[in-house]
Amino acid sequence: MFKIDDTNANKMPKKPEEEASNIRIQEYEEIENDENDEDQGDDGPCSRAVGRTQDAVIKFYSTHKRIIVNVFLAVLFLVYMTYFAYCMWYSFGDEGSIRLLVGTILGVFLIALHYLGDYFNLSKALNGTVRVKNKAKLRKIIRWVLYVISAVAMVTVLIVLVAIRTPSNLVSLGGLAAFILLSYITSFNPAKVNWHPVYWGFCVQFLFAGIILRTRVGYQIFDWLGSRVTEFLNYASAGAIFVFGDVYQEHFFAFAILPVIVFFSAAISTLYFLGVMQGIVKVLGRFLSFCLGTTPAESLNAAANIFVGMTEAPLMIRPFISRMTKSELHAVMTGGFATIAGSVLGAYIGFGVPADHLLSASVMSAPAALAISKLTYPETEVPQMSDEDYSKMEDMPEKNLIEAASSGASASIQLVANVAVNVMAFLSILAFVNATLNWFGERAGVAGVSFQFICSYVLYPVALFMGTELADCRRIAELVGIKTFTNEFIAYASLRDLIANHKTWTNYTSIYDPHTAGNVQYISDDIFLTHWNMTLTKGIISRRSEIIATYALCGFSNFGSMGIMLGALTGMAPDRKKDLASIVLRAMIAGNIACFFTACIAVKSADNSDSVIVSEPYDLYDVMDRFCVRR
Q1: pLDDT tens figures, 33-80
Q2: Where is the composition biased (Basic and acidic residues) (predicted)?
Q3: N or C: which end of the chain has fewer CB within 10 A?
């Protein structure tokens, strides 16, 4: 007779849930045995009955935990859908009902994606139904068909909606070509450039721009989203008033802007705990990977950068960072430099920058970052990632919703402190540098020499390539220089003043004719409003230039962020420190180019006169009036 060796049978791996259940059961059994051993005769019949019932309930729950949780969630879902149906029947058509409808559709989509995602995996379906040779051939045919369709569509749109109506916007098309050529010439390995992600990055950006900036429906959707985000962030004032009092806006940046970062950081952390952000990021990551042909890890990171910062987004792909190729690491870093964090989005909105443009800039910069990254640092190694990696994002360590919100608020402490001290430090350094440059200029009889003055000439071609009007090129070049060499906070603060100037100018010229002698005085770059005794420092820029600046400045690509990026990624993958340090400067420059790329496409899709992108100023403009320098 054969003897069956069952030694390995007892060593079969168990599921984590089963192991946890067995451990809990063993703990309760040990506790019960210890209590019986210590005091076996003291428990009465009632205590022993309660103990047995408790042990039975715990054992039943541990054994059937998944079923119980699913049943509870199903009942909760049915209750909510009943409430939703009643609300739609009771009142439909107002803004509140639309908000409820959109939120419900998004929630149902994310739930369906979580439970049924594997059934809609196109890659798995092809693997199971199409042979390898036929699959490669089919993919090649589909790719070329999409190439032709997208190229014809873009050329048609450019001719009909841009070249005929606003030919001046074609300047930014030349800017796109210039940025692509510059990136290709300075590429790490031009011979290895794969133009597929570059082309489709351009196409996806163009698609987003067309939907958001050229269609009334697309603009209204993002305008609605921008208004909802602004409304949501305004609740940060409740905490600011409680802590700092009703007069907190007297110290606007410290007590009105920074609390928004705390509030939004807590909100983002809560959404991650609930799994909402992971679902959104998975959808966008798969979309970018499908369109651009990039690997799952770098696509997930690019999608996450739309919502979180350059140090938080890589946390979602932490297990893969040490195994990434240098090109993938470069893409991760470029994505962080080319976008902004959701936690500071409210701060920029508080500066008076329209929320809808900031949202669209964040979305459009994600494919741009991947495209420019693959152009400046093409893939020369074999990636180790697969499509299965989409389901391997790290879970949050928090145990409940309260802990998640608290952790998010606590995590913002470092961010708030970092923003505050950097703004103070760089503004102080900038003031010293300007005073020094002005001193050197005065020794030679040249007045008004400053860092901004130098940037306005050095970066003039960049502003011109983006399609900026000639009269505004120097001012936009100044903003780009401030953003690159200091940070985007200071740049947006300067843009805030120009936006406020434009509103004041509009109100003034509606009363007094600027062409009548004595009404307006132009003093260098400043404008003096005679009847209001007010000086508009640095003058004004057009709405078109405001929009270009909004998109061009929307990113963390500056020298200060290089240290932050290196510190974050080195902490996650210490063995890749040398590789990260060798590519961080190139990635920062690529992030800047991606922002310029987004600005080019945004303005190319815009219209000088009746474009839908020119929205009415937000109420926050009223807060900015006091930043005008009164004379």
Answers
A1: 555 554 444 567 788 888 888 888 888 888 888 898 889 988 999 999
A2: 1-18
A3: N
Residues in the chain: 631
Contacts for 305 with CB less than 8 Å, ≥ 6 apart: 313, 335, 336, 338, 339, 366, 369
User: Mean pLDDT score of the chain, rounded to an integer?
Assistant: 77
Helix, strand, or coil (residue 316): helix
Measured from the Cβ of residue 395, the count of other Cβ atoms closer than 10 Å reads 9
Instruction: Extract the tokens encoding 225.
Output: 């989203």
Is the pLDDT confidence value at 485 over 70?
Answer: yes
Among the residues of 91-194, which ranges form H helices?
Answer: 95-116, 122-129, 132-157, 171-185
Q: Where are the alpha helices (DSSP H) in 510-558?
A: 543-552
Structure tokens at 346: 């409210």
Q: Which amino acid is at 342?
A: G
CA–CA distance, 590 with 374 (Å, rounded to integer): 10
Question: In this predicted structure, what is the pLDDT of residue 626?
Answer: 33
441 touches 447 (CB < 8 A): yes
For 274, other C-beta atoms within 10 Å of its C-beta total 14
What are 345's strand-pairing partners?
A: none
Percentage of residues of the chain with pLDDT beyond 70: 80
Instruction: Please answer whether residues 561 and 310 qualify as being in contact, where contact means their C-beta atoms are separated by less than 8 angstroms.
Output: yes
pLDDT at position 86 is 92
| C-alpha–C-alpha distance, residues 554 and 153, integer Å | 28
Degrees (nearest 5) of the Cα angle 256, 494, 313? 65
Helix extents (H) in 510-626: 543-552, 559-572, 577-604, 620-624
CA dihedral defined by 472, 475, 481, 486, rounded to 10 degrees?
A: -140
Cα distances (angstroms) measured from residue 493 to each of 27, 424, 529:
59, 13, 22
Task: Please say if the pLDDT value at position 344 is more than 70.
Answer: yes
Task: Answer for the pair 349, 233: CB distance below 8 angstroms, yes or no.
Answer: yes
The domains of the chain are located at 65-118, 147-411
For residues 315-334, average pLDDT = 84
Q: Give the whole-angstrom CA distance, residue 473 versus residue 462.
A: 9
**Banded pLDDT at 26 (limits 50, 70, 90):** low
Q: Is the pTM of this model over 0.85?
A: no
Q: Tens of pLDDT along 486-537?
A: 888 888 888 888 888 988 998 998 888 888 888 888 887 888 998 898 988 8
Q: Which helix (H) or strand (E) holds 322?
A: none
